[in-house]
Amino acid sequence: MTASAIDRCEVPAGPSPEPGRSVPAPLYVVCSPNRQVGKTMLARLLVEHYMADARPVAAFDLSDEAPGLADFLTRHVTIPSIQDTRGQVRFFDGLIETANIPKIIDLSHREFANFFTIVDKIGLFEEAQRRAIEPLILFLIDPSPVAAKAYGLLRRRFAGVSLLPVRNLTVAKGLPYCASFPHASRLVVSLEIAMLGPAARTLVEREKFSFLNLAKQASPYSDMSARTRAELDAWFRRARFQFRELELSLIREQILTALQSDLCA
Amino acid sequence: MARPAVILVGADKGGVGKTTVSRTLLDYFASRKITTRAFDTECPKGTLKRFHPGITDVVDVTSVSDQMKIFDTVETSGAQVTLIDIRAGLMTPTLEALRNIGFIDMTKRGDLAFAVFHILGPSIASLDEIAETSKFLLDARYFLVKNFINNTTFFDWDEGTYHSYFNKIPHAVEVVVPKLSEMACEKVEISAVPFATFISDKTASGQPAGYSFVLRGYVRHWLNGVFADYDRVRLTDVLESPDSAKSPRSNAKVAELSPQRASS
Fold first, then answer.
1. CA geometry: angle at B131 spanning B126 and B136, to 5°?
2. pLDDT of res. B195
3. Which domains, ranges and CATH numbers included, belong to chain B?
4. I need a labelling partner for B115 at 20 to 30 A (CA). Which of A106, A211, B75, B178 fits?
């Protein structure tokens, strides 16, 4: 995949929040310092989760290996560049300009260090939180020491931000969280990408595969076996259930925070 | 006990970032609630005045009347710090003038604090200037500033040669101004506001400015680094009693601006 710089990071306009109500919109950063751990798969699932409910969502492909997020969801994904200051201004300024749209970043392992260094320098997460945008770092765990070290670094550097370990069972089956990947968030949620059988996996990894089109039984899925279809349906539903739990947990935290500030007032 | 201080910021060559350093100093003292006034010697238009118009006067430092305006009012102006941004090439003549009017003697007696920020250029000739300048500064705080804001490389300097000059002036202290993104530099220049005002996204009149969050973040990070170095060399000790005028280089605790503070 060639990353073509786009002049503007286009974030779709969404409805304004109701007066007096500001549920923070999530900013998901899907990441790992290693490749082939399921980052793009998780990012795809998240994007399609919002699309399935016809909710606006903005997705950004910062991966530099094909196939990337933009290869699967061409019309819904922007490919920014953060290699120079100009690109960083376009991308990061855009991220915080619209507060009420969930945003998903599929972060390449090669950009991992650069991205978080910039974010730390400019104070992106603190500014996002001030603007009712909730940063959520979704870290795909794996058994490598590099992953454990990177997780520890993120935990120390971004102590006020939710850092959620995600287990992709294809890569990290049986890998416990607690020692190397402690849950670092007030959100009570556990995220896992289940394994897929070989046939289903081959289908999902094809470019342009879409769970929404699968649900619509649109071509080229109309001839899919019932068994594979059922497996993919269940897999997608399981992922969506976890994402809904995550969203509900965010709302719960917002309510608790509002109640606490009312009590203190 | 605090005493008024005069700070000269100068270089014998142009384009080394002298006014940039002056601007950081004004922001630093403001952040520490130290009252400051400034004199911009780029007569007649001024360069520093563009960024700090409320506290800066443009003067001709070679004229006696303007020298009176500056130095006759150091103790009566109400400002704890008088900062003078000396035009390129005028530092040595200004120091000579200060010696001739007895100002250097006043600082020796401890009536006033005196500090010089000597902005070094990348050429080896810049090191020769140190020896020339230091003759006047036996009882003053002498800060040698390496300004990397423009990505200057001090490659002309052999480490051994550099240290040989540095070691001749035991009370000289090195200060480093790190590099700042060119785009951020340009934006602050165009905005014509102090660094702290740019960071807090305000215009000169205090209205919301709409500057890029990313560029403000870079400027904040950079300025925090500069302030940390000023803390490290205990710059505010300049205002203290004569006993602390010649403190050796020491590592002070870093005080860092949080985005919250910088934005307020």
1. 120
2. 97
3. 5-263 (3.40.50.300)
4. B178
CB contact under 8 A, B259 and A88: no
Chain B: closest CA distance from residue A120 (Å):
9
Q: Is the pLDDT of residue A6 over 70?
A: no
Average pLDDT over residues A69-85: 89
Tell me whether A124 touches chain B (CB under 8 Å). yes
Q: Other CB atoms closer than 10 Å to residue A262's CB: what's the count?
A: 8
A233 CA to chain B: closest CA distance, Å?
A: 41
The band of B133, judged by pLDDT with boundaries at 50, 70 and 90, is confident
3-class secondary structure for B207-254?
CECCCCHHHHHHHHHHHHHHHHHHHHCCHHHHHCCHHHCCCCCCCCCC
Q: How many helices (H) and strands (E) does chain B have?
A: 10, 7
Residues A135-174: tens digit of each pLDDT? 999 999 999 999 999 999 999 999 999 999 999 998 877 7
- Region A215-222: mean pLDDT is 65
Whether residues B184 and A88 touch (CB distance < 8 A) is answered with: no
Is the CB of A89 less than 8 angstroms away from the CB of B214? yes
Report d(CA A70, CA A1) in Å as an integer: 9
The contacts of residue A202 (CB under 8 Å, 6+ apart) are none
Higher pLDDT, A33 or B260: A33
Q: Quick check: B211 pLDDT over 70?
A: yes
Q: Which residues of B touch A121 (CB under 8 A)?
A: 217-218, 221
**B18-47 per-position pLDDT tens digit:** 999 999 999 999 999 999 999 999 888 889
Domain boundaries, chain A: 25-264
Scanning the structure block, which residue is given the tokens 């102006």? B77
Integer Cα distance of B55 and B53 in angstroms: 6
A92 reaches B (C-beta below 8 A): yes
Nearest chain B residue to A93 by CA distance is B213
CATH class of A25-264: alpha beta
Distance from CA of A158 to the nearest CA of B (A): 14
CB pairs under 8 A between A and B: 40
* Closest residue of chain A to B213, computed from CA coordinates: A93
ipTM surpassing 0.90: no
How close B260 comes to chain A (CA, Å)? 9
